[in-house]
Write a structure and sequence with these properties.
Layout (H helix, E strand, L loop, with lengths): L1 H13 L2 E6 L4 H4 L1 H7 L5 E6 L8 E2 L2 E2 L3 E5 L12 H9 L3 E5 L6 H9 L2 E3 L5 E4 L14 E3 L1 E2 L3 H4 L6 E3 L4 E3 L6 E6 L4 E4 L17 E7 L5 E5 L7 H4 L2 E2 L9 E2 L2 H12 L6 E10 L15 E11 L2 E4 L13
Parallel strand pairs: 1-2, 1-5, 5-6, 6-16
Antiparallel strand pairs: 3-4, 7-12, 8-14, 9-11, 10-13, 13-15, 15-16, 17-18, 19-20, 20-21
Helix pairs in contact: 3-8, 4-5
Length: about 325
């Protein structure tokens, strides 16, 4: 009885908790704007460092959190024996994950991403684009301007602005149809180590190179991988952006708004659906659970709601489909 009560309490606590795993003590300062925005999303945040000996995700077999945000791109091993498999189990249990990677990406982050169909390029590589780099980049052209967003306002918002990106490239596993290309590189981009001869074909080139990728599992759990830890930093949030050779003046980078919208989707504050009040019956008759014949005229009704900015609203989709299965 006591254990049942403890589990019930843990479930209630987990329903509003988000674990943020930090690379080190400096991350809270360098990414303060990202973390401040996260705190506005009706979540109770618990901070831990990646190597913390008290780091844990489950207790008594139950998840302690609803969401996990990992801002520790170079971590090679998490504290307290927490493994990549523990995060994958968290996803299987319905939890959501947001994590950042970088050119110094560690094996743990790569392993988590690979298991959900997102392959992160090797440590030491960067996304390079000699045609779409920022005017402030006078070096390797790895500070790039990106605007190839997925056509989904639910994920990236309405009319997202170009963002600054400096980090590692990713590719989607062609066998995993659930991977979502949230932000792609331009057709002239490629992934490689800067200032090194290209002797082998890169992981990906052009529009097949992903900068931000996501996945919604069949249990509706979501994961998002930002290929750039820097793009979530205060420095990039407050930066101006202009692609080399582009017309017009500089404009404020859209990193903050873009990241906030993507995180809203990842934490299921946007784009989540639920249904209720399902009714069906032969035309003109009372609702019934009876089976129907091929020639029967059937009336079917259902209430569908969509999560928008943390609130349930009437679903306004135009692509709802009803299937009848013949036994």
């Amino acid at each position: 009885m006591e254990k049942a009560i403890i589990i019930a309490i843990l479930l209630a606590v987990a329903s509003c908790r988000t674990l943020v795993i930090l690379e080190n003590v400096l991350t809270k300062e360098s990414h303060s704007s990202f973390l401040a925005d996260l705190a506005t999303k009706d979540v109770d945040i618990v901070y831990k460092y990646a190597t913390d000996s008290s780091l844990t995700i489950k207790k008594y077999g139950e998840s302690l959190y609803t969401n996990i945000v990992i801002l520790a791109p170079s971590v090679s091993a998490f504290g307290n024996g927490v493994s990549a498999n523990d995060f994958l189990t968290f996803l299987d249990d319905g939890g959501n994950i947001v994590m950042s990677a970088s050119s110094d990406v560690g094996d743990s982050i790569k392993e988590i991403a690979a298991e959900v169909g997102i392959e992160i390029d090797d440590e030491g590589t960067s996304v390079i684009d000699h045609m779409n780099y920022d005017v402030s980049d006078v070096g390797d052209h790895d500070l790039i301007v990106a605007d190839s967003f997925i056509s989904s306002s639910v994920i990236v918002g309405e009319s997202p602005k170009p963002i600054l990106f400096k980090g590692v490239g990713m590719a989607a596993d062609s066998d995993n149809a659930l991977v979502i290309d949230i932000l792609r590189a331009s057709p002239t981009a490629y992934s490689h180590a800067a200032n090194q001869d290209i002797l082998e074909y890169p992981l990906a080139i052009g529009s097949s190179l992903l900068l931000v990728a996501g996945m919604q599992a069949r249990n509706n759990a979501r994961i998002v991988v930002f290929g750039s830890h820097d793009m979530l930093s205060d420095k990039f949030y407050n930066a101006d952006v202009k692609a080399q050779g582009a017309e017009g003046g500089v404009q404020a980078a859209g990193n903050g708004e873009f990241a906030s919208n993507v995180v809203d989707w990842a934490l299921r504050r946007n784009g989540d659906l639920r249904f209720s009040n399902v009714k069906h019956n032969k035309a003109g008759e009372a609702p019934s659970d009876m089976a129907y014949r091929i020639t029967d005229e059937v009336e079917y009704s259902i209430v569908i709601e969509e999560m928008r900015n943390g609130n349930w609203e009437a679903f306004k989709g135009s692509d709802v489909q009803l299937d009848f299965v013949r036994i």
